Amino acid sequence: MESLFVPTLIVALAEIGDKTQLLALLLAARFRRPWPIIAGILAATLANHFAAGALGTWVAGLFSPAQLGWSLAVSFAAVALWTLIPDRLDDDEGARFKRHGAFLTTLIAFFLAEMGDKTQVATVMLSAQYPHFVLVVIGTTLGMLLANVPVVLAGNFAAERLPLTLIRRVAAGSFAALAAYAAYQALKLGALT
């Protein structure tokens, strides 16, 4: 169950204040139809994170366990630092697709916004670290929904009242802890070989 719970927690924390959360807020304000937006977030995240998880699982097979551990440690440390940098949303993000309706606009905008985003990178790393690929994808998708659905439903109210700096620091600390754990595992595996 760790393959489900850790990714859920990590992505939910990392997503708060992320540009896709800001995109969810923008789409909610533009369309004022929460359920098609939520469905679009779900579909886009599942597609994006499934591809990212598959990549992570494939990459994990290319390295020895110790090499993978060190690669994960460095990657998690980099994402920890990246998490401390606040995201901002480009003014036209999502606007160019508005004519396609709430669901399709959200699906396309979220899928594109997640490309190369820290939660997508985290999904690659988490699926490389944990053995249950499907649980990791479900967990990262749940994390995205936990962070974004309240924003869609509550609009500005929730986003303006969250302590974003503190949440970013907690998320960065979580990634740093994963980096330390991966380094510990790599050291342990290196000593065994």
Automatic annotation (TrEMBL):
Tell me how this protein sits in the membrane. Multi-pass membrane protein
Pfam families on file: GDT1
Q: Where in the cell is it found?
A: Membrane
Q: Does the keyword Lipid biosynthesis apply?
A: no
Q: Where are the transmembrane segments?
A: 37-61, 67-85, 97-113, 133-154, 166-184
Keywords from UniProt, A to Z, are: Membrane, Transmembrane, Transmembrane helix
Could you name the domain of life of the organism this protein comes from? Bacteria
Family listed: Belongs to the GDT1 family.
Q: What is this protein called?
A: GDT1 family protein
Q: Which organism is it from?
A: Pseudomonas benzenivorans
